[in-house]
Amino acid sequence: MKQNRGPAGPAWLRWCLFTAAALCMGLAVTGAMQWISIGTLPGVLEWAREYPGHLAMTALLWAVPVGILGTLTGRLWIAALPVGALGLILALVDYFKNAINGTPLELADFGLAGAAGNVAGLAGDLTPPEDLWLAAAGLAFCALILFLTRRLTALEGTARGRTCLLSLALAGILLTGTGARAVGNWLGVDFYTRMGPAENHSLHGLTLSLWRDAFPQPKTPPEGYDQDYMLAVLERIDQLTEARPDPEAKPNILFILSESFYDLTRLPVLRYGGDPLEHFHALEAESVSGAFHSHYLGYGTGYIEMSMLYGLNSLDLPPGTNICFQDEAVYERFDALAEQFTKSGDYTAEMLHAYDNTLYNRTVTYPLLGFNNLYFSDDIQQMGIEREDGAYGGFYMRDGYFFQGMLERMKAVNETGKRAFLFGITMENHQPFEPQKFNYACQIPLIAEDFTPAQRDVIRVMLEGVTRADQALGELTEALRESGEPTIVVFFGDHRPNLFMPGGDTVYTLLGLCPENDTLNWRPEQINDLYSTDYLIWANDPSLLDGLAGTRRDSSITALGPQLLELTGRPVSRYWALLEKVSEAALTQTDLYFVDGGGRASFTREEADLSPGALELLELRDAVVYDAVYGKRYITEQMNLPPGA
User: In what order do the strands lie in the sheet with 586-589?
Assistant: First the structure.
């Protein structure tokens, strides 16, 4: 007798069981992802009890694709496999990103999805957590249950077609901002309040935090925003700023982003058998120097470049927006930093990068920001540079070799009768900080008794990388001392390395500088400390520093460009003149933290004790940015003219 393998039970019961099974699979994917993210099952249960609406919304978001695929394939267990795998992959990427730099996965990070292989290679060896395999086993068990009960959830004919249409309709609702917010409001999910990535991730979980980023929370316009309001803003900016005459001095500008460079001698406990920053420390006496307040730790170089060259940051853009992958028109609304030099006609701007052109959309954004030529690793190696130790050191191009490339381009530009504005991005000190990176060599002895041998091996790589960056800086400045071309060097570390150690900690947690890798429970002072590096502005002619050589001044991603313009006396647009003034009130404004002009940190500017004048400057900047990015652009063109024009 032939065994009956068809559907079991009445159609209405199978439809109910199908719906319940899809929701249960969505719940299982939610639990598995949270398990990987939180690290313990009790932690997942605590999150679920505290935020049941967030749990239900996330389960629904995963149940919908299970339902769609289940009706299309006719097998719910088949649908569970790719959906579960996608959830695990997202959770793993989130885990790795948190391990690298202490911040969760954001929607903006998907701008780099096309270069995922390169990003993974730059990060080095990443070990999945044990929870991944346990969570995967749990999802496999759920899929097995769906397989064993497949006759009870099988849909046929009209019921299958209608369920597919219903699932697609629900997906359509959730894919619109209005629909997602309506369902979210019903379940008690706040889709409107903007919050930092760490808080968003902790409160809502990975899936829902990404979903919230997909529907930008509305940016509140200035009160009374209209053309008359913005014309009043323009008038006030002209009252606070002034036009400048064309300066007589026109030095070359070498703007150098030194990968993961910072003064590691300021770290506690660790000691060294020499000064790894011998040249940097000596140059400070001839430079304007100080703390450099970054917006990142461990990664984000491309985002730092865009903020530095354009004056905007993540807080100015909708949540989930990648500053490197906006519409091209956005990059042309304001004249960029390089254009404050090139628009006079006596400068040529070029970008040099010690890696390839695959990351951060640089081949698109840099020409839009006023750069005439771009040179990547292969291009630099075609310049005929001869060096005994070769082009590569560790895993990447040597900083010393790279700086020789910058000098070659400066010379070539000068021979055309113009000055050079060169923005250089080094790579020799880039992660991964694997013990074999520099062939286990370390020029300066490390004393770190409280660390294991494996941990000391990783710290030595950081020490050697910073030492090499410092030595290359020394070579560069010595070459410029012998040059007859007046040149200013702006040198800064983009961020500290988030030195991931064997066992899961970073060097900073082991040194007691922060409580854990995740920034959620950090104090503002801890964020400010670890999200800062060092910088200097040096000139081969001391007169170019306007008597400021040897002075100390805090700077930041959005303050260093205005600081250079102030120092060189360039005629600047209203926009950059305003940014100069704003940098006196605020060095850093991000979703994560705020740093005032004196280097004092708080979580938000509302918590900072700002003067009325400082608040006014920030409000003027807010109005200008809103008008250009979100509004009618009433005064955007005028912001690119000199004050008073």
Answer: 586-589, 594-596, 601-602
CA 276 to chain CA centroid, nearest Å: 28
Q: Write down the pLDDT at residue 1.
A: 42
CA–CA separation, 155 vs 472, rounded Å?
A: 69
Residue type, 210: L
- DSSP of 51-114, one letter per residue? -HHHHHHHHHHHHHHHHHHHHHHS-HHHHHHHHHHHHHHHHHHHHHHHHHHS----GGGGGGGG
Place of tokens 């910058």: 406
Q: Are 629 and 550 in contact (CB under 8 A)?
A: no
What one-letter code names the amino acid at 389? D
Determine contact, residues 337/534, Cβ cutoff 8 Å.
Answer: no
Give residue-wise pLDDT tens across range 230-266: 999 999 999 999 999 888 899 999 999 999 999 999 9
DSSP symbols for 209-262: HHHHHHSPPPPPPPTT-SHHHHHHHHHHHHHH----PPPS---EEEEEEETT--
* First-to-final CA distance of the chain: 94
Give φ, ψ of 374 to 5 degrees.
-125, 135
Considering the entire predicted model, what is its pTM? 0.86
Read off the pLDDT of residues 555-590 as tens digits, 9 standing for 90 and up: 999 999 999 999 999 889 999 999 999 999 999 998
Alpha helices in 392-439 (DSSP H): 399-414
Size (the chain), residues = 645
- Give the DSSP H or E segment for 1: none
What distance in Å separates the CA atoms of residue 344 and residue 338, rounded to the nearest whole number? 11
> Which candidate, 330, 297, 309, places its Cα nearest to that of 625?
330
From CA 247, how far away is CA 250, in angstroms rounded? 7
CB atoms within 10 A of CB 46: 12
Task: Indicate the pairing of strand 288-293 with strand 555-556.
Answer: parallel
Q: How many CB atoms lie within 10 A of CB 591?
A: 20
* pLDDT higher than 70, residue 86: yes
Closest CA to 423 of 561, 297, 533: 561
Question: Of 532, 393, 451, 266, whose CA–CA distance to 460 is shortest?
Answer: 451
Q: What mean pLDDT is predicted for residues 332-337?
A: 95
Label each residue of 16-38 as H, E or C: HHHHHHHHHHHHHHHHHHHHHHH
∠364-355-414 over CA atoms, to 5°?
75
Lowest mean pLDDT among 203-207, 235-239, 403-407: 203-207
Distance CA 550, CA 288 (A): 6
Position 49 pLDDT exceeds 90? yes
User: Hunting for tokens 């708080």 — which residue is that?
Assistant: 602
* Helix (H) or strand (E) segment spanning residue 477: helix 453-481
DSSP state of 435: T
C-alpha–C-alpha distance, residues 394 and 539, integer Å: 30
